[in-house]
Specification:
about 280 residues; alpha/beta; Rossmann fold; 9-stranded mixed beta sheet; 9 helices; 9 strands; globular
Length: about 280
């Protein structure tokens, strides 16, 4: 890594699409599509290439196994020659929960938090049910509403709370790292798997409505020109683990996926999330 290399740190809970996003970026970079070009082979190439192979076969990228402790890193460069490293600390949901409960970050997380120029925090809204509207809905209707099944993750914090906890820890360690004081990284709240949401609400409004605590925390800790909210669909639509999707087989994964701007409007160039160049 050179002194001028920009580091982009990708964070998020389990099953938000971090690995799939990196795999799709790898495919775009290899194909010369978008605003990034190849700059060496990715670290931990095997899981990235395996993920790309699965997408080429029209099936979903496999989930991260419990106990995984590896950093996936994609080296690339912009059209003007600026080096960019996209970094994904790969971990499973249980591992992230342990970090939050023990309030202790692994050393590699501290290092990446300290040096990264940009953080992407992925949140999958479809995994977090909307809170009931207790102000406008009748009490009787609320009482009859079905209780959401928390599944296997009953002790998990709400999306707002765990995300704020994680950001607070990362900012703390960044500020405690010895050496010259670095400005806070540019922060992007990425609402992943956007295709699962049956909504025409722009991402910036969806974050205010569904992630009010996280959205207000970010706006209080980052200036407006250093924080944004976007939507992301890395795949374009859900994929099965075994049954191939015909459009992937016919068109290839490089034709799939899109980014939604803060106020709406889509762009198929996923590299927009990691570079500011036009």
């Amino acid at each position: 890594m050179t002194a001028t290399t920009r580091r982009v740190l990708v964070l998020g809970h389990a099953d938000v699409g971090k690995t799939t996003f990196l795999v799709q970026l790898h495919g775009r970079v290899k194909a010369g599509r978008g605003r990034l070009r190849p700059r060496g082979a990715p670290t931990s190439l095997t899981p990235i290439e395996e993920g790309l192979r699965r997408l080429q076969q029209g099936v979903a990228v496999q989930h991260t196994a419990q106990g995984t402790d590896v950093t996936l890193e994609l080296p690339a460069s912009t059209k003007s020659g600026v080096a960019v490293d996209i970094v994904v600390p790969d971990y499973a949901g249980e591992d992230l929960r342990r970090v939050l409960l023990n309030r202790r970050l692994p050393e590699r997380w501290r290092t990446e938090a300290a040096v990264a120029d940009r953080w992407l925090l992925l949140v999958r809204l479809s995994k977090h049910p909307e809170l009931p509207d207790v102000l406008n809905r009748p009490i009787g209707e609320l009482a009859r509403a079905p209780i959401e099944n928390p599944g296997d993750d009953a002790d998990a914090l709400p999306a707002d709370m765990w995300a704020v906890e994680l950001l607070q820890a990362l900012l703390y360690w960044r500020e405690q790292t010895p050496g010259p004081r670095r400005p806070r990284p540019r922060m992007s709240l990425v609402l992943s798997c956007w295709d699962e949401l049956d909504t025409t609400t722009p991402p910036v409004d969806a974050a205010r409505d569904r992630l009010a605590l996280l959205d207000s925390y970010c706006r209080a800790n980052w200036p407006p020109d250093r924080f944004d909210v976007v939507g992301l669909s890395s795949q374009g639509h859900p994929l099965d683990d075994d049954e191939p999707a015909e459009d992937y087989l016919n068109q290839g994964p490089q034709q799939m996926g899109w980014v939604v701007g803060p106020t709406g409007g889509t762009d198929s160039d996923l590299t927009l999330l990691v570079t500011d160049e036009t």
